[in-house]
Specification:
The complex is a heterotrimer of chains A (506), B (337) and C (314).
Chain A: E1 3-5, H1 6-20, E2 24-28, H2 44-48, E3 53-55, H3 60-73, E4 76-81, H4 91-97, H5 101-104, E5 114-119, H6 134-138, E6 144-146, H7 151-163, E7 168-173, H8 176-179, E8 181-183, E9 197-200, E10 205-209, H9 212-225, E11 231-235, E12 238-240, H10 244-254, E13 257-264, H11 269-280, E14 288-292, H12 302-308, H13 312-324, E15 342-350, H14 356-369, E16 375-378, E17 381-384, E18 388-393, E19 406-410, E20 429-433, E21 440-448, H15 454-469, H16 473-484, H17 486-490, E22 500-502
Parallel strand pairs in A: 2-3, 2-4, 4-5, 5-7, 6-7, 10-11, 10-13, 13-14, 18-19, 19-20
Antiparallel strand pairs in A: 1-8, 6-12, 9-11, 15-21, 16-17, 18-22, 20-21
Chain B: E1 11-15, H1 16-30, E2 34-38, H2 54-58, E3 63-65, H3 70-82, E4 86-90, H4 101-107, H5 111-114, E5 124-129, H6 144-148, E6 154-156, H7 161-173, E7 178-183, H8 186-189, E8 191-195, E9 207-210, E10 215-219, H9 222-235, E11 241-245, E12 248-250, H10 254-264, E13 267-274, H11 279-291, E14 300-304, H12 314-320, H13 324-336
Parallel strand pairs in B: 2-3, 2-4, 4-5, 5-7, 6-7, 10-11, 10-13, 13-14
Antiparallel strand pairs in B: 1-8, 6-12, 9-11
Chain C: H1 3-28, H2 42-50, E1 58-60, H3 66-72, H4 76-83, H5 118-132, E2 138-143, H6 150-161, E3 166-172, E4 175-176, E5 179-180, H7 193-197, E6 201-205, H8 209-224, E7 230-235, H9 254-264, H10 266-271, H11 276-298
Parallel strand pairs in C: 1-2, 2-3, 3-7, 6-7
Antiparallel strand pairs in C: 4-5
The chains are: A alpha/beta (506), B alpha/beta (337), C alpha/beta (314).
Chain lengths: 506, 337, 314
Amino acid sequence: MRELTVLEAVREALAEEMARDPRVIVMGEDVGRLGGVFRATEGLYDRFGAQRVIDMPMAETGIAGVAVGMAMRGLRPVAEIQFADFIHAAMDHLVGEAAKIRWRTGGDWSCPMVLRTAYGGGFRGGPYHSQSVEAYYAHAPGLKVVAPSTPADAKGLLLSAIRDPDPVIFLEHKRTYRAIRGPVPDGDVVVPIGKAAIARPGSDVTVLAYGMMLHESLAAAATLADEGIDVEVVDLRTLLPLDRETILTSLAKTRRLCVVHEDTITMGLGAELCALAAEAGVLDVPPVRVAMPDIPGIPVDDVLEDAILPNRATIRDALVRLAARERTHGASRAAYDPAIPQASSTIEVALAEEHLRGALDAVVEACAAFPRFNATFAWSGITEHDGVVVDLDLGASAPARGGGTITLVDYGRDGADLAVPFVRPNQTAALRIGAVRNGRAFVTCAVDHRAIDGSDAGRFLAAFKTAIERPHHAERHRYVERQCHPELVEGPSSARPDAHTAGQTP
Amino acid sequence: MMTATAQQTGATVMTNVEAVRSTLHDALVRDDRVLIMGEDVGARGNVFLITKGFLEEFGAERIIDTPLAEASIVGVAIGMAMEGLRPIAEIQFADFIYPAFNQIVGEAAKTRYRSNGDYTCPMVIRTPYGGGVRGALSHSVSIEALFYHVPGLTILAPSTPADIKGLLNAAIECPDPVLFLEHKKTYRSVKGEVPSGYYTIPIGKADVKKTGTQVTVVSYGYNLHQALDAANRLEAEGISVEVIDLRSIRPMDKTTILASVRKTRKLLIIHEDNKFGGIGAEISAMVAEEALFDLDAPIRRLCGPDVPAMGYALTLEEEFMTSTEQMVDAMRDLARF
Amino acid sequence: MTQAQRERAYRALSLARALDERMWRLARAGRAHFAVPCSGHEAIGAGYALALQPGLDWVSPHYRDLAALLVLGMEPRDVMLCFFSRPSDPNAAGRQPYAHFGSRRLHVLSQQGPQPNHCSHGVGCAWGSKILGDGSVSVIAFGDGGAQKGEVHESMNLAAVHRLPCIFVVHRNGWTQSVRREDEYATETLVARAAGYGMPGIAVDGTDIEAMVAATTEAVERARAGGGPTLIDAHCVRFLPNTSNDDDTRYRDRGALEADFATGDPLVRARALVDPVFAQRVDDENAAAAQEAAEWAEAQPLGDPATVMEHAYA
């Protein structure tokens, strides 16, 4: 079979479909004489003429709106938004109009159009030439959203999209355009919309991915085969409507889910995919999303862009952890005492990966300022303790042993970013340090609401933050260590810190 | 429930719409930089009469009737905000916000980030959302999920008069753009006590509107009030449901949600917006990631159907809106799971 | 216009008014949720529709263009089905409120309301006419409120650049719901905008049915001959509030309005063109037809809730 790039496959599909169906119109900025900024429409203008290959003004609202009108009129417009970043101006026509036309007319009208756009980062495009936009459109019933990753799918799905009786948003990852080459069958071979594909079969973990991240996921999976981790990679291909059957079948087998997308994490498509799995009850361990952090744009700076985009290394890392995760259902049940009404508060702190000693110091210091957090509640009265005994909970391998005056939970990098600890019996407060990400972490304080007001929990956290972020704390640590944690300083270096008895810091 | 600052001297009972109106009025009196702009906010006093009398009291320079042009309403407000004013832009109905999408997502949300903090965009975009008022396709939509995905934006959706006052004050104070969503079916149907004097409620804090032990319900908007009704009905059956009012959509109060879920071990998310890719998806994903081992039942979502819009005919609209009875059933099922 | 054409025009104006008044009363009485009055606007819609070839030409109407729909062939019962949101409504099957018109049979593009999104749809439709070469033209009608959106700018520019067979008709009533003309645009009229796009502009008294037909006919001939688009600025008086949810006493002087309408009522002006006995008979027939249609439509069943999922996709 011949090999094409994704870009060549898109171009071939457009040319073949224009030749097959005279109603097909290609329109957009620079699609004519220039042949598109990526050359996806190269040659179409010369072959089919200005009437069918229309250079449009820089007016995305108009491009989408005119395509809607053409589609209603009986043409098959394939409109191009040059970069997905510019699609926002067309949203009203896509979500407010195209998606609703069939439904709002009881089937009298339809809107068979395709809107192609180049999305995704990884080539120093900056905040306005790198965005992923699928999540906005996947939330709009009435639209179909397609995101192929291979040349064969790019061609086959584009043919399907143009022939589809409903509006299709067709997302082309611009890094795949030239980087991804693969076999493409000759002739009129369509790929159905709404069907995912198993890009790599496996049994231990399921990866759901699309676009350039599919290829990064496959690369990560390949390196794990030697280590005995058998990863199944599902190429979603169509994001709306989602192929629930293929996804849930895979998860029923592996029971472990990793979603990979380039789009920002919160409310990205991964949210729906995780929710789907959580609802179906097919997971043995928590799902993992590998995605871009929640920042407003992709920076153009080489180092920053590389740091925030998921890649085969970060995916691999997530998969190793996911495969190793043990099922510990009900872990927190014993710690929870329903008799304690809890309130909680969270603060973000700058934190190094290695921070345990500093954290213990900071707990002691904060307790000194707020003795109510180092106390025992009884209806007859609240007893504030003289010394601080930190009940340290480092996770399943080293859980808290009880007997302290305050609890500190820290599951390290395998823990959640943000989670609420439980206040243990005979204590009034508990702190939990979330996983450190890029030098920052969330610290949550839960309190027994009968003893401590929620606003004081915030003040206590502020004191904790001041203490743990204080400069030159290395020197201070040595001082406090001697004061508070003699076994940390004096014991063997491998000794696990248990409960640390200490006097109040000065 | 709220951060009680100085000057609280009592409380008044008012509806949600009155709370919006009085909070805006106080803000205009308090701060010369505050101005209101939008379609019909002047002479007509807004389609819900929220700004009734403002034009006469504050003048046409601060109460600006704009043309029917949402993109420029938001675009101009961004420019005003960058220059130090505190514009409160109104999109008459949330359904009309799409033409302004580029200005909100592409510009307002990115202003601080792309200028490395040199410029900020302290503006509030207020808009009535939600259905159940025979508003059909273009007066019923829920838009929170579209914007929830946008880092750089703050999204608030309070559901009671006291929360509206505290959060609208917080929104006006906020140094970054805030999308302030008001469920129009609650405007006149929801009434409550509002403390006197100036106060704010911290952005990003949910509120446990009812405590319970067996099921956690997370909701907001009109659905919240239905969920509270449903939870109260179930008390009689001995089923104890905790109802969390999200109030802030973004940032979301993961802490409160997780604390509750770890207690009840069961989660039901209720929202009016359609299910696929609605904010329930993110809440569910977050809880699955953080607390799967603490759950005793799959996470459930009770949401609008995945159809393109809410219908106009009463039967179609009722089919779209989740009923209190459906909520009772879903809560009971989950409690018994 | 021939006398037969004048009588046909009068029938449409009179029927539109009769339906409008009936819907207004029913909405005010709480029998239906939403009415969009067209009183004062009738001659614009009827005028452009009379200049078109039914079954060939296309319309993206303004939501006050009930009269155009009637000229194009919509029946009073269809109008009332739409008003009462019944599933057999040919416009929206009960899914959209009244006046959000659309009918494939009548070549009326589906629209979502007064937002001028349908302007670019109309341009796309006209582009289809050019590509398909069937000689059809498209009318794109909108209000002077909607005309202040970027959407309309992009649409008019594209139509002019590609000399598309379309006619932009702006209903210039001077109000965008409550916002007066001075706060909407700085010029007295909008006709000068045509020159800015490189298309002819015609200012017309939109309450004069004959003037409206003549202006549209000229524009249609130009469009059909390949001469490109035209902007028609049609002035009129919006006699009633914006919709049944509006209270215009908050911002309009009713006395001045009544005085304006005394000279600017298109129905009164059209009555002068026909025999008074004929006019009275037509008015009586239409009042009866409106009543019958309303009673019939209200008696039709509402949609089955189970159909809510239908027509999301093919």
